[in-house]
Design brief:
The protein is α/β, with parallel strands linked by helices. The chain folds into 2 domains: about 5-80, Up-down Bundle (Four Helix Bundle (Hemerythrin (Met), subunit A)), CATH 1.20.120.140; about 95-290, Rossmann fold. Helix content is about 50%, strand content about 15%. It has helices at about 5-10, 10-25, 35-45, 50-60, 70-80, 105-120, 135-145, 160-170, 190-205, 225-235, 255-265, 285-290, and strands spanning about 95-100, 125, 150, 175-180, 215-220, 240-245, 265-270, 280. It has an 8-stranded mixed sheet, sandwiched between helices. Strand 5, helix 10 (about 225-235) and strand 6 form a beta-alpha-beta unit. Helix 10 (about 225-235) packs parallel to helix 11. One of its GO terms (biological process) is SRP-dependent cotranslational protein targeting to membrane. Its EC number is 3.6.5.4. It catalyses: GTP + H2O = GDP + phosphate + H(+).
């Protein structure tokens, strides 16, 4: 199955429940009050959120002479298209992966390593989640699977020291990409955020421009909770992009739109399953087509 087919399948539930209905309501019509109310309700129920819903309705109203459905498609693609490319201009490029435990962060780090390896890049994986022995072991498995170097210390070690060693190794061995897998327990929020800041400070001593990307991994199934997580992380670290995982689950796909609109953070990758190749760069047009039309 091609990736777009997976996209369609993954978003089938949200399409049938919400966005397909929006298409039915809007197709070939102008936006009167009744239609407007119906669309507002469907958008909010699909996790698009109030702010993004108001923006979308306003844009459709402004294009009063045009087909409302075509305008909706155009507005969504425009909203989601900005800045989706990864910043890979420096060698090594350091990517810091952040997110709460359970969002699929370590798996995503491994899948990213696979994606880069297949594109001819040499990858270093850093096991900076030193609180969980399982995370270190899991990353080592991904290292073997993707032919990446894994830098790990023992459980309980200083995670910033692991990050420093990984960047140091990448520089000395002329590697292309460093992926830092960090801890994600939010119940000690302040400590966790300080830890993330420290990692960023320490690697700057070795490579001033690093990290080049700070990617927040969000489980799409968590919906508005995912949005709240993103707000908390954004307060403490400069999130440059979102990786939205588990879009093949019971996710309401609207959360992607809410994140981009409310936080101004682009979606850079999406995950659609358990397979190693089920993580792909985000394509706004494909996403919107799969969400609204399934074709």
């Amino acid at each position: 199955m091609g990736f777009f087919e997976k996209f369609k399948k993954g978003l089938q539930k949200t399409r049938e429940t919400f966005f397909g209905k929006i298409k039915e309501v809007l197709s070939g019509k102008k936006l009167d009050e009744e239609v407007k109310e119906e669309i507002e309700e469907l958008l909010i129920l699909s996790d698009v959120g109030v702010e993004a819903t108001e923006y979308i309705i306003k844009k459709i109203e402004e294009s009063s002479g045009e087909d409302a459905y075509e305008t909706l498609k155009k507005v969504l693609v425009e909203m989601l298209s900005d800045n989706t490319e990864l910043n890979l201009f420096e060698k090594p490029t350091v990517i810091n992966m952040v997110g709460v435990n359970g969002s699929g962060k370590t798996t995503t780090a491994g899948k990213l390593a696979s994606y880069f390896s297949k594109n001819g890049k040499s990858v270093v994986l850093a096991a900076c989640d030193t609180f969980r022995a399982a995370a270190i072991d899991q990353l080592k498995v991904w290292g073997e699977r993707t032919n990446s170097t894994v830098i790990a210390h023992q459980e309980g070690a200083d995670s910033a020291a692991v990050a420093f060693d990984a960047v140091n190794h990448a520089i000395s061995k002329n590697k292309d990409i460093v992926i830092l897998d960090t801890a994600g327990r939010l119940h000690t929020k302040k400590n966790l955020m300080e830890e993330l800041r420290k990692i960023n400070r320490v690697i700057k001593k070795k490579l001033e421009s690093a990290p080049h990307e700070i990617l927040l991994v969000i489980d799409a199934v968590t919906g508005q909770n995912g949005l709240q997580q993103a707000k908390i992380f954004k307060e403490f670290v400069n999130i440059t992009g979102i990786v939205l995982t588990k879009l093949d689950g019971t996710a309401k796909g609207g959360i992607a739109i809410a994140i981009v609109k409310e936080l101004g953070i682009p979606i850079k990758f999406v995950g659609l399953g358990e397979g190693v190749d089920d993580l792909k760069p985000f394509d706004a047009e494909d996403f919107v087509n799969a969400l609204l039309e399934g074709e």
